[in-house]
Amino acid sequence: MAGRRPVGLGHLTMLDTAPPDFVSLAAQAGFQAVGLRAAVASPAEDPWPMAVGSPMMRETLRRMADTGVRVADVEIIRLSPQTRAADLRGLFESGAELGAKFVNIIDFDPDHGRAADTLAAIVAEAAPFGLRPCVEQMAYSALTSLADAVKVVDGSGAGIIIDPLHLHRCGDSPQRLHELDTELLGFFQLCDAMLAPPSGLLRPQRLPRGQPADVDDAQLESRVARMLPGDGELPLADIVAAMPRELPVAVEAPNLQLCGRLGPPEFLRRAREAAARLLDGSHDPGDPDDPGDRREARR
After folding, report:
1. Beta carbons within 10 angstroms of residue 47's beta carbon
2. How sure is the predictor about 260, in pLDDT bands with cuts at 50, 70 and 90?
3. Sign of the torsion angle spanned by Cα atoms 284, 289, 295, 299
4. What pLDDT, in 10s, does the model give residues 204-237?
5. What does each C-alpha distance from 44 to 47, 207, 212, 214, 290 come to in angstroms?
6. Are 140 and 106 in contact (CB under 8 A)?
7. Among 69, 127, 119, CA closest to 96
8. Across all residues in the chain, what is the average pLDDT?
9. Which of 58, 104, 109, 65 is closest to 83 using CA atoms?
10. CB of 98 closer than 8 Å to CB of 75
11. Which CATH architecture has domain 8-298?
12. pTM (two decimals)
C-alpha cells in the first residue's frame, strides 16, 4: 500500500467488533486509521465501555501503539432539541485520549436554526479536546440535503461528512460537491449501492449492538446492507474527483451477509483493496477471482 492515499475504516462497517479487535483487524487489512463508536446512536444501542481509564480504552490504546493505526474520528452525537453541549464532555474526553480529529453528529432536530445554535455550542465545547464536530446528510434525519447541512454548519466551525450512499439517497449529485466551500468539508466516506432504493431487504434477527431492527429499508440498507466500493452503481469516481486530495477518507460499508460469508479478515481485505482501486483511479467493476460476489452483495 506504499504511496497510496491513507484510508480509514468506519466502525459501522463491523460495529459488533470491539474497538481493540477492530483496530487489529483494520491493521491486518492495510487500513491506516479507524473510526470508533465511543458513544451510542440511540438509547437502545449497547455501548462499548470506552471511557477514559476503562480496560477497553487501555487495550485499544495498546493495540494502536502496536499496529500504528490511529483513530481519525469518534462517534456518535445524536443532535436533538434536548441536546446540551456540556453533556458531551465524556465523549470528547474519550476522543482526545484516542487522538481523534473528528466527532460525528447525526442531526434529528427539525428546527435548523436551533440545530445550528446547538452545533456551534458543541464546536466550542469540543475545541479544547482537539475535535472538530462533523455532520452528514441522511434521508431519515433532519438534514435531507447538502443544502440543509450547509445551512446548519456554515459559520460554526463544524464540518460536513460526504457519504456516497446518503448523497445519492437524498437526491444530490456529485456535481453539487464542486459548489461546496472546501473549508466546510470534514472528511468523506466510501461505500456503494444500487441506484434504485432497496425494497424487501432480508431482515436479520438482530442488528449490531442492539440497534433497533424495526426500521425501514433505507435505514436497514445504511446500517447492514451497503456494498463494497465498486460492487454497486453509485458514481464513486465522480465523488472522489470532487474531493480535495488532502481530505481524509474512510470506508464505511457494513454488509452483514457478505461479511458473514467471507469472515471479517477477508471482508476487510476486499474492502481495502476496493478502496485502493478506486482511489488509485484503476477501478474495475468486476472481480475476476469471484464473479459471484457482486450478485450476492445485491441480494
Report:
1. 12
2. very high
3. negative
4. 888 999 988 889 999 999 999 999 999 999 999 9
5. 9, 11, 7, 12, 38
6. no
7. 127
8. 93
9. 109
10. no
11. Alpha-Beta Barrel (3.20)
12. 0.92
